[in-house]
Design brief:
33% helix, N-acetyltransferase, Aminopeptidase, 2 domains, GNAT_dom, acyltransferase activity, transferring groups other than amino-acyl groups, Acyl_CoA_acyltransferase, GNAT_acetyltra_YdfB-like, alpha+beta
């Protein structure tokens, strides 16, 4: 049985989501930050009629949809909810769940990424943060300086205005943090988290200026960032599709836990 979820379903929903806090971090964060009564956000649950347990469901955040599941679910029913939305533009989530729903929807493009998680501080991670130039934590005053660096990173797909708005909003709301290193007043390396919630956070935006690469700067920043978040009792996760980046993250203790699919209409 599929129905809209309300505040009365919070405990049951969280019970399911927290079985996989890394894979479900976006939904956990959105529920913690926005609740259930927002125009830009809706939640549906696939509920077992016999037990009343939420076994799967779907989040709408603006024009994007993100499914979650703890077992078998009504794939076609969730797909029908999505296709009834004329503004629908993207379906993303754990690849196995997304691909089941996508059987009933036509998509123009698919992108798939590796999904990795870090739960404990490793020895290599501690060694990476042991020495070096002072690491700084960005405030909204450093948004422009940080974005001047990320503007130069060809792998990052965002425009100048949106990247600045996004970083500013994240820092103001406390749903993420950004660490950086500078040289002669210029930001030369950075690493950030986003979608932080009470149980998990996602590492994003790990970058080094082209003139300062091969010095381990981004690795050191990512290690410090991860150590601080882990010390707060949270787990970390990240996406990657670059094998070289995957090797670096695995040295810090990240382990692959699945694939993440993004389907575009």
């Amino acid at each position: 049985m599929i129905r809209k979820l309300t505040e009365n379903d919070r405990a049951a929903l969280m019970e399911l989501l927290l079985t996989e806090p890394a894979l479900n971090l976006f939904i956990i964060g959105d529920v913690e930050n926005f609740g259930f009564e927002q125009d830009f956000m809706e939640l549906w649950g696939d509920i077992d009629p016999a037990s009343g347990i939420i076994q799967a469901g779907l989040l709408r955040f603006y024009d994007s949809y993100l499914p979650f599941a703890g077992g078998p679910f009504e794939e076609k029913a969730l797909a029908e909810i999505i296709t009834q939305d004329p503004k629908f533009s993207m379906l993303s989530g754990p690849a196995d769940i997304v691909h089941k729903i996508s059987r009933s929807i036509s998509f123009r493009k698919e992108k798939q990424l590796h999904f990795a998680e870090l739960k404990n501080i490793s020895k290599p991670l501690l060694e990476a943060v042991s020495s070096g130039a002072p690491i700084r934590k960005a405030t909204v005053d450093e948004v422009e300086a940080v974005c001047r660096l990320t503007d130069q990173i060809t792998e990052f797909e965002s425009n100048r205005e949106s990247s600045r708005k996004s970083l500013k909003k994240t820092l103001e709301s406390g749903t993420g943090r950004t660490y950086y290193l500078e040289h002669e007043g210029q930001v030369i390396a950075t690493a950030s988290t986003t979608a932080e919630n009470s149980r998990s956070a996602m590492v994003i935006g790990v970058a080094t200026h082209p003139d300062y690469r091969q010095q381990g700067l981004a690795t050191r920043l990512a290690a410090q960032l991860c150590a601080d978040v882990l010390n707060e009792g949270k787990s970390l996760c990240l996406f990657y599709d670059n094998p070289k980046a995957g090797v670096i993250y695995k040295r810090l203790g990240f382990q692959d836990i699945g694939n993440w699919a993004m389907m575009y209409t």
